[in-house]
Amino acid sequence: MDLRGLIGRWPVIRQLRGEDGRGSAARSARTDALRPRTAEADTVARSVCPYCAVGCGQLVYAKDGRVTQIEGDPDSPISRGRLCPKGAASKQLVTHPGRQTTVLYRRPYGTEWESLDLATAMDMIADRVMATRRETWQETVDGKVVRRTLGLASLGGATLDNEENYLMKKLYTALGAIQVENQARI
């Protein structure tokens, strides 16, 4: 290509010729090749940001079962498509290479962590809940029927919605716990 043709392709020269900067003068082959990060997704799921009690709506884009992008949901009446910096970076919760993907357990008085499969960990939790309930159950107190345990309590997180808090309350009430609270702010 000759020097005159090369100079004529510069955006400043094209702008000086009368082409405005919003059109072809501001475009390049690389710009034309760019595609949205969401274009390749084969599924989109609606979700809620896990960080605080606001409950901003999110759209989770995935391809081949792997999360590729998380963006604000414009249909959310709470956030109307906006996310704070933490919410905008929430993709890292599931894709960061340092994410813990196994259950770690440190035995009482132990100094090292060991990996457990999820089924074993869930069985251990269930066994401990039932043992605590059995050991701390009170049928009566001062002759009054109470049918409770003071050995179990629940504090729900601020990101739980009303439905999740309702289910937790039902579970812990069924177990006999009376100390059930949540941090719901919405």
From TrEMBL:
Principal location: other
Keyword Mitochondrion: no
Pfam (any one): Molybdop_Fe4S4
GO molecular function terms attached to this record: 4 iron, 4 sulfur cluster binding; electron transfer activity; molybdenum ion binding; oxidoreductase activity
CC cofactor: [4Fe-4S] cluster
Keyword 4Fe-4S attributed: yes
Keywords: 4Fe-4S, Iron, Iron-sulfur, Metal-binding, Oxidoreductase
Name this polypeptide is given: Dehydrogenase
A biological process term (GO) from this entry: anaerobic respiration
InterPro entries: Mopterin_OxRdtase_4Fe-4S_dom
Cell compartments where the protein resides: Cell envelope
Residues covered by the 4Fe-4S Mo/W bis-MGD-type domain: 42-98
Gene3D superfamilies in the record: 3.40.50.740, ADC-like domains
GO CC field: cell envelope
Family recorded in the similarity comment: Belongs to the prokaryotic molybdopterin-containing oxidoreductase family.
Tree of life domain: Bacteria
